[in-house]
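Justification of resources, computational component.

The compute hours requested in this renewal are based largely on the per-chain cost of generating structure records like the one below. Each record pairs the submitted sequence with a full structure-token output. That output is archived, and it is also reused by downstream analysis tasks.
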Amino acid sequence: MINLEIPKKAKALVNQAHQAAAEVFRPNSRKYDRAEHAYPSELDMLASLLDGLNSSGEGGAGASGVRAGDDDKNKGNRNGGNLSTVLGAIEMCWGDVALLLSMPRQGLGNAAIASVADDEQLERFKGKWAAMAITEPSFGSDSAAVSATAELDGDEYVLNGEKIFVTAGERADCVVVWATLDKSKGRAAIKSFVVEKGTPGFEVVRLEHKLGIRASDTAVLRFENCRVPKENLLGSPEIDTKNGFAGVMQTFDNTRPLVAAMAVGVARAALEETRRVLDEAGVEIDYDKPANTQSAAAATFLQLEADYEAAYLLTLESAWMADNRKPNSLQASMAKAKAGRSGVDITLRCVELAGVYGYTEESLLEKWSRDAKILDIFEGTQQIQQLIIARRLLGKSSAELK
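The structure output for this chain reads:
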């Protein structure tokens, strides 16, 4: 396996994240998989620790984003904030991906706020737990198809619409809602708004029962004549037909590497457990011999490790590019596509390699195979990522390549 040394400044964070995963996440993983919709109270103290790391500038394993509009003198490396977050997320998801998604104040909405909010909004929403509401009953992966509306009325926007599959939609303090200012102007009119819990017209309709990540609540939200201050719009209120949607979509350039990191962490957990099972069964894995000269189990394991390494390296590259102000839309989608697919393939093949043991609740392998599937779906499905990659490589617009 390729062994990339972790930067010295990130080692303390990685060690702390691994310790939290080993001592908090792993021991409670099965408990909250069974107790779906029960809030994991064990996370409160851990969330406070992450808050401290984030405020100190050390970075954490949860939400982060690249600030848009920083002046030229600040466009260099910003202490590896995205890379540190990705490394921390890998360790935490080695413990349990659903519990990471349940961490207070570390939601995907927090990444959106960190990326595109102005300084006043950053201060106002500091300490809030923010969910992200994009998907609607009428569409899934095509974010440009948002039909929820936001109409300016005096000093407030009036939101109407329904959102589904909102991670932490019930538990979060606020939700970053994607809505259109004018349907006739297409994707350029789509903006994001911070809607705080308790706002009249904002209702949590129901919680979903899911195959995996059962410890993480997934909600359906409804907005009916929901009034939010116009100051809660993230980014510019102007409808720019050339760059408007690109500004909203930049959130994904920061969150897709984070989701890729989650898949990498789950895959690594499955590989380590499977390696232990194979060792106990007397299966020898020799890195100095061609895979085709070894047992079928050893050859399969080597293939899975190679797949893991590719996903890992792509994920680190996309985060490093974000830290260094390099356009990373292509690399973010490549990392998300590769890690999402590899996470599913690796965890399922590990269940097979472990036999009956891998399919029972005696091990966490079966749970990891269930959890991994969502990481290939949310933040843009496998198919959407491949479409984005093709457009970038071929220089085609969304209208030219559908």
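The longest helix spans residues 244-280. DSSP finds twelve helices and eight strands in the chain.
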